[in-house]
Specification:
The protein is of the alpha+beta class. The protein is 24% helix and 26% strand. The protein has 2 domains: 5-173, Sandwich (Immunoglobulin-like); 180-452, 3-Layer(aba) Sandwich (Aminopeptidase). An 8-stranded mixed beta sheet has the order 12-13-15-14-16-19-17-18, with helices on both faces. Bound molecules: zinc ion.
């Protein structure tokens, strides 16, 4: 489609941040919306069919403004920067409605904060609609990532899209959304089942008074000596695959699977599934509501500015007085890596280094989505304030502290290492389950346990 050289007019997009309303915004999952909802809320004016309507006024939504290049044909889209921090612009999640049947449109996302991107490797935006509620990738042949002279020689993402149905809401996102409400519903669904080996506590409240959940999964009646494994996720709110991995791990640990039962007998899992609920709710990419990258605050968190980290750090330190914390793993997603991998801490002796590498090796053997070969031993001074570095030093467990990074895009095809296969929610859930199985295998190997795991 031909691009037009000048912008005709621009629209501001309804967003949580721009609503002049003191009452808390309604939390709604994207699939709960319909056209009549929109009209009832007054979010849309009656326009002629084909003049697209944009909004992001739902949980984790993000779109700032739209320049109409040519009404009905071409639109330039701008991401809203993280709240109180204009440096980060990557996550987007918005709804388009009022399309005509078979209307073909060119969208361009113009203001990403970084140039390096998996879009160069073939990643594509994802889409779902009212009648097709499962996320799908837009075919990569319709997606272009390039330096645009029309946008001041910056890198932009253009994609063409055919609206094949009328009266549908179409949602577009950077990656598979997983909201604060999704987590609360998941945890509530577990609580009502009253598993004797599950406990949910309120660790504390965020700046905007959302819940910080602390989960314990273990066989409370087992008298076997136990190790503790601490897991955290979503310190970076746009890194939604981390939540799917955490979700997959929790589901596996609570299951009837015989290996899950074995794990519960010898391990206490302490899981904080969402470290930055405010950022997740607001649709930020990296920061908290106050604009802090919380994964640089672990060394000296302030309870007024970073209560999420102060609470978590204090909780882990207190726990270590009575329990043997053996592992700490922080779950993330990577916006430029084509496979999933781990950052590990630099440790002194070669025998300790060997031990550090056992878990990533075991995960590599189980999970096609994960590459041991991409393990990165990291001593970057810029990462001093991260959870992996700080908790490793404070608890003296640096050799077992990891940042697990899931690619936003792909894994290597096991039968052809030159091919990249796009990841979906189910891959991430499966990776979580395989992380659980890798822990069991770790203890079988290192502690001469009688537990036996079959080959994959
Ligand atoms: Zn991250």
């Amino acid at each position: 489609m031909k691009a037009h050289p000048h912008l005709q007019h621009s629209l501001s997009v309804p967003n949580f941040q721009t609503q002049a309303n003191n009452s808390p915004p309604t939390i709604a999952l994207p699939h709960a919306h319909s056209m009549s909802d929109l009209n009832a809320k007054g979010d849309t004016k009656k326009k002629k069919k084909g003049d697209l309507q944009f909004r992001a006024n739902f949980e984790s939504g993000n779109l700032n403004k739209v320049h109409v290049v040519q009404d009905g044909f071409e639109y330039d889209l701008y991401i809203r920067p993280d709240t109180n921090n204009a440096n980060y612009r990557l996550w987007y999640y918005f709804c388009v409605s009022n399309a005509k049947k078979n209307q073909r449109v060119l969208f361009t996302i113009c203001n990403f904060s970084k140039q390096r991107s998996l879009y160069r490797q073939g990643m594509a935006p994802i889409v779902k609609s009212t009648s097709r509620p499962h996320w799908e990738c837009i075919p990569s042949k319709q997606v272009y990532y390039y330096k645009s002279y029309r946008h001041g020689k910056t890198y932009v993402l253009s994609f063409s899209f055919l609206f094949d149905q009328e009266d549908e809401d179409y949602y577009f996102a950077y990656s598979f959304p997983y909201t604060y409400t999704d987590l609360q519903r998941f945890l509530h669904g577990i609580e009502v089942k009253q598993f004797p080996y599950f406990r949910r506590e309120l660790l504390g409240r965020t700046v905007q008074y959302r819940r910080m959940d602390l989960l314990t999964i273990t066989d409370f009646e087992s008298t076997a000596p136990k190790k503790t494994i601490a897991i955290t996720a979503r310190i970076h709110p746009g890194e939604t695959p981390a939540s799917y991995v955490c979700h997959g791990l929790i589901s596996f640990l609570l299951s009837d699977h015989s290996f899950a039962k074995m794990l519960r007998e010898i391990v206490v899992f302490k899981i904080i599934p969402m470290l930055n609920p405010d950022g997740v709710f607001l649709g930020n990419y990296r920061c908290s509501s106050m604009g802090y990258d919380l994964n640089r605050q672990w060394m000296n968190p302030a309870s007024w500015a970073h209560p999420e980290i102060a609470l978590t750090r204090e909780c882990l330190l207190k726990m270590s007085e009575t329990e043997e914390i053996d592992f700490y793993i922080d779950l993330h997603s990577h916006s430029t890596a084509t496979s999933s991998f781990m950052f590990v801490n630099l440790v002194d002796s070669s025998s300790t280094r060997e031990e550090t590498l056992i878990l990533p090796k075991l995960l590599d053997m189980r999970a096609k989505e994960f590459q041991f070969a991409d393990t990165k031993c990291c001593k970057d001074p810029l990462k001093l304030g991260t959870g992996r570095r700080t908790i490793g030093e404070l608890l003296k467990i640096a050799k077992h502290c990891y940042t697990l990074e899931m690619s936003f895009y792909s894994y290597l095809d096991p039968s052809d290492a030159t091919k990249l296969v796009p990841l979906n929610e189910f891959n991430y859930l499966e990776l979580g389950k395989n992380l659980g199985l890798s822990f069991l295998e770790f203890y079988r190997i290192t502690q001469n346990s009688s537990f036996f795991l079959g080959k994959k």
